[in-house]
Design a protein that fits this description.
The structure is a single chain. This protein is an all-alpha fold and 133 residues long. The protein has one domain. It has four helices and no strands. Helix 2 packs antiparallel against helix 3. It is extended and about 75 Å long. About 4% of the residues have low confidence.
């Protein structure tokens, strides 16, 4: 839920980086909220879908912002979010890009400040084992 709220706090920030968790948790909570709003809309017999339209307008800028920051995290221009507009194959390519692992360290769009891109220390060496026959 923190990632969802963080995207709203940075609703018009199109610079910087967003790791996979930030992007995908935003997508998840956005989807859940849309389902809940759709159910409420159906229960109150909202003929013109005013609730869904209002929610869509509210999340428009945060969605674009987090998507652009996600592209920056894999060292791509924010314009790559438009790849999803290509019929049939575009949205598949977009999902692959959004699921791509973050760049380690700094890139053209800023420093890596997320735990996802931190280097993991190597495991302790194991003692050799000998087969006794």
């Amino acid at each position: 839920m923190d990632y969802y709220l963080a995207a709203f706090k940075k609703y018009a920030v199109f610079t910087g980086r967003a790791n996979r968790a930030e992007y995908w948790y935003f997508v998840l909570f956005n989807f859940i909220a849309y389902i809940v709003i759709s159910i409420v809309s159906a229960l109150i017999d909202d003929k013109y879908n005013a609730l869904r339209s209002l929610y869509s307008l509210i999340v428009l800028l945060p969605s674009i912002g987090v998507a652009i920051r996600r592209m920056h995290d894999i060292n791509k221009s924010g314009w790559w979010i438009l790849i999803g507009l290509i019929p049939l194959i575009g949205w598949i390519w977009a999902i692959v890009l959004y699921a791509t692992k973050s760049d380690n360290g700094s890139n053209d769009y800023g420093p890596a400040s997320t735990p996802e891109t931190a280097t993991v220390p190597p495991a302790a060496p194991q003692a050799p084992t000998f087969d006794v026959q």
